[in-house]
UniProtKB/TrEMBL annotation:
Annotated protein name in UniProt: PPM-type phosphatase domain-containing protein
Domain of life: Bacteria
SMART domains: PP2C_SIG
A Pfam family the protein falls into: SpoIIE
UniProt KW keywords: Hydrolase
Gene Ontology terms, MF aspect: phosphatase activity
Domain PPM-type phosphatase: 116-332
Coiled-coil regions, chain positions: none
Keyword flag Transport: no
Amino acid sequence: MCEEQCEGSPRRLRLRQHLRPARQRRPGDFRTRVSATSGVAAAAGPGDRLAALEAELASVRAELDDLNLLYQATIEHGEAVEDQLAEANLALQTTQKRLTEELTEAANYIFSILPEPRTASPVTEWLLLPSTELGGDSFGYHDIDADHMAFYLLDVCGHGVGAALLSVTAINVLRSAALPNTDFRDPGAVLSALNDAFPMERQHNMYFTIWYGVLTRSTGVLRYASGGHPPSVLRRADGSVLTLSTPGIAIGMMEAMSYRAAECTVGAGDRLHLVSDGTFEVETSPGQMLAFQDFVDRLARSETPGEVLDWVRGLNGPGPLPDDFSLLNIRF
């Protein structure tokens, strides 16, 4: 824009007219003209010498005017560029502010759909800490009917807006039981239906892992199934520890997959911990990852999710965790 304004300005046109003959001169031209004038002076009278000097002075003044014009044009061009940079910087700041506000709004929405901690049995306590503004972890629990209650935690590959959108969509599908012809009391059937509903080819090549369990209150039977997800950890009231998982790949990676459920019984005083891989995939030293069994041992001794987070952060060292930290504790 500045280039065009300067190109067409009367000042620039006049500058070109003045500079055109000046550019054809060489640095020694002035000395040559003085020598020539001196040579003429030797053969001419005082009047001729004065006329030659006046002509030379006029030429020098013209060159000075040209230089002043060039200086003014340079200043004007610099000011125009500075104005353009200021406008661009203001637009960038405005856009950045808007994006930050939208990311904050999206993060607030993700947390708003998470369930309130339960104080009645089974009691729940949870902690979600995304590694970036928007993560791909989410979880939930709800009554399917008077005798059955579902618990689930999922982890979408990657981070950012795309992962968060897929995570929220899958959670809302589970909460609203929006999978046609699916018995939500059967964890295997739920995972198979999710796999059919969310093929990665239709989700920008994103997939997710999940652990889904259903408690039958009247019998204490807990049925569960997992798709590519870390095992959940069951600490019984007597101190024994079980890890609960079933074979199966992540949801959406391969079509027409069939997932099967397993089951165990839970009783008063038992605790179930649903985790994402971000809770334990940290380095204990350069190049050395935390062993899952060490994590299980520490998790089984914990009382709160915050206690586990502090321990993992201590292992990880300063800075954010490499992945989303999600932990859902359920006390029966």
